[in-house]
Model the fold of this input.
Amino acid sequence: MADPRQEKIALLTSLAKRRGFIYQSSEIYGGLRGCWDYGPLGALLKMNVKSAWWRSVVTKHGNVYGHDSSIIMHPKVWEASGHLSGFCDPLVECLLSGSRFRQDQLEAESGTVFEYCGAKSTVNDKRSDDSYKVLAKNKGEYDKAKKTAREFYSVKRGIEKPELLGEKSYEIKDSVGEFNPENGGQLSEARNFNLMLKTFLGPAEDSAATVYLRPETAQGIFVNFDNVRQATRAKIPFGIAQTGKSFRNEITPKNFTFRTREFEQMELEFFCKPGTDEEWHEKWKNERMQWYIDYGIKKENLRFYEHPKEKLAHYAKSCSDIEYLFPFKAQPEWGELEGIANRTDFDLKTHGEFSGKILSYFDEETKEHYIPYVIEPSAGGDRATLAFLLDAYAEEGEGDEKRVLLKLHPCLAPVKVAVLPLVKKEGMPEIAEKLYAEFLDEDVNAQIDINASIGKRYARQDEIGTPWCITIDGDTVESGTVTVRDRDTKEQEKVALNEAVDYISKKLRKSRP
Ligand code: GAP
Done:
């Protein structure tokens, strides 16, 4: 039986395409791996996620300043940050199919390895003395493994109808990154693959013109530390925050918008006095976790993951991830939404060393100079959007009563209210048009839907997560009242037509965390 959790991702992917949330990039050309486009509703949803983040991280804290740095920066930035030398993943390649994998993401495998010292053709005198290994995970895979080995000598070494030579076999247990999980074929040795995307600035395509698309927005903040501090006269502790695109040439982009090559980050660099860093780290961890809960993600689908000391990034003293229980198959289901790291003074110190411009802070009260420590809550805009969508997806009822709905938080819902005239006569469409225009005038994103039965129109709105539907009916014409239907409870309430915009605006305002 299909796992209902994995079915959910298939259902959501289909809804996302059908209703205009998320499409594959360049779909009419067959798509581009690792890149996605957001349609009319998806663009609104992601914008709402970013606004909710900005409101919580920047607006609500008087001492966090907004920022927007360029995607392409001086190449020295990436030398100083350690990305040029160290931002690498171990890449392995199938010797037969050429498929590429991140070695550290492959699962441990056990079974019998067949090793050949070469092959010769059974129809001519051609032979190959290259050795080749192939894994059979169980007895049922022996024939398949040999077929893969023959294919290797035939396709890659040009041996027609090959006979395998010098077979040896041995057992392996829990070995990682030696064999292609799809065909059992031998993988290459791992090589370090730098994830930064390169391009050239200006007309000359040479190494002097090489620049990189930023792999994180953070560095644009560190290099502007002094500019922002001077312009705002900020006193420690204070933060600088920005949202924006980042790029990583991921070896295996996968799981819908979870791991992509172009993605949105929402990052805060919070500067504090050394010694107070651990306290601030705890504070930001809790605040960021609460943000996901406040905007509707169920507590049981969220957890912290503490990075073990030996696995920390080169700049971090400690790091906790906020993880979400994603319904993906081929990887641990808990997936990172956000990393909250204590970056110490690493970045300001190294940029100071590489640029020759000391990035320190003078405390006027204590008359001390020091390099601030940094707490960095770094979230992904696309991952958060995906988690909000997955958590909101629900199916209710049976048979004719069955409905699909996105229980999105009203602040995140792309459409806040739908205006639905019950019938296309008795002046109802005209009243609906007028009310719809009033919502747009008030910056409340609304839709008007005139066609199909009222049940079908409710269903269309439930499926895109619209929190409220307003029906214009006989009572509206006679006594000036409308019916407001709640998406989640289906409860209906009568409200005066001339108070409808105010009523919804107030509900929206009240729902804000
Ligand atoms: N400045 C620190 C930093 O960039 P990170 O853990 O590499 O840390 C932060 O990235 C967040 O960016 C992740 O938690 C994730 O939400 C998002 N992210 C990173 N790589 C991504 C990718 N390939 N696709 C989608 N989102 C990604």
Observations:
- The longest strand covers residues 262-272.
